Amino acid sequence: MSKPETSISLAAPDIKVPRIERKTGVPYTKIAAALLVVSALLMPVVLPWLKTPVIFAACFGIAALGVSILIRAGQVSFGHAMFACAAGYAVAFAARWWSQLDSVVLLVIGTAFGAFFGLVVGLFVVRYRAIFFGMLNLALSMVLFAVLGKFFHLTGGTDGLRLARSSFLGMQLERDDFETALLISAVVLAVTVGVLVQRYLSSVAGQALTAIKTNETRLEYVGLSTYRILLVGYVLSAALCGLSGAMFVIAQGLVTPEMGYWIRSGEFIFIAILGGIAHPVGAFLGAAIFEFVKLFAAAYLTGAWQMVLGIVLIAMVFFAPMGISGLMVRLQAKQSKGENR
Fold first, then answer.
1. What's the whole-model pTM score?
2. Which of 31, 53, 30 has the alpha carbon at shortest distance from 40?
3. Is residue 188 situated within a structural domain?
4. How many CB atoms lie within 10 A of CB 11?
5. Contact at 8 Å (CB) between 195 and 30?
6. How many separate domains does the chain show?
7. Of 1, 114, 212, 237, which residue is 20 to 30 A from 67 by alpha carbon distance?
8. Which residue range forms the structural domain that includes residue 63?
9. 74 and 128 in contact (C-beta within 8 Å)?
10. Are 62 and 240 in contact, with CB atoms under 8 Å apart?
11. Can you say whether residue 74 is alpha, beta or left, with left for phi > 0 and alpha for psi between -120 and 50 degrees?
């Protein structure tokens, strides 16, 4: 099927990725990543009730990192929450059919199913660009949302499915210890996927993915298949959303169709834009800000937390259009140029 030609365009956030001069300048992104890791591990020690919000923030960050991969290619998906939701249901079904499954195995199952589902959807969706790409993802996510809600006898309908607390690395843990294990796992996974995604984006495949946004035709001329390049990026982003959904469901003990609703997809995009796509740490910075602004705004501005998030996003668009990580990378680049003169 040929790619449709149209004058309509859905512009991805016009976020330029500044080049980083190596070995010079203050490594703001590394410092931010280290502060995030330390804060995520130490804050719940002082305030134990923060364990769950930190786990959820890590889940949102991993999903937003997946969405940001596609934004680098100039494509915005309004339906990527369907991969997190599908992975969540895969985890729920697996846990019900094989009750002895370990949490780590469930995470692997959720990630694998997210990648497989992404491959199936991506074979069709990556043929399209701009508004068609975004709306097709949205349409498919709403189909999944409707199906999950209608098949009550299988999916539990809008009530969803509950999960019993599974073992963790072969150990049966009480709730507090289980949350601590999940917290550490979430932080380790966040660091691991952040490093892996950074290496992928620095590779030839990652650079080619970014080039789709700037000059797709030239890539075809030099013999690179943009379809295959974008499909790899799409499957990777779906796998990350699957990992996010699996971790979220295990932590929450419940999966519902709301996980795949378009609002959740919008939250992933919000976090990706807020944190920026210049560096993987941006997704986790954006997720941390999103989760804690939502948490405290809901407590002190009941019914108006969406307004607070909207104001935060408007401020970012005006004062830091490249997102937080883009701002840090630009500052680092300026310092590097100053030192090299």
1. 0.85
2. 53
3. yes
4. 10
5. no
6. 1
7. 1
8. 47-261
9. no
10. yes
11. left
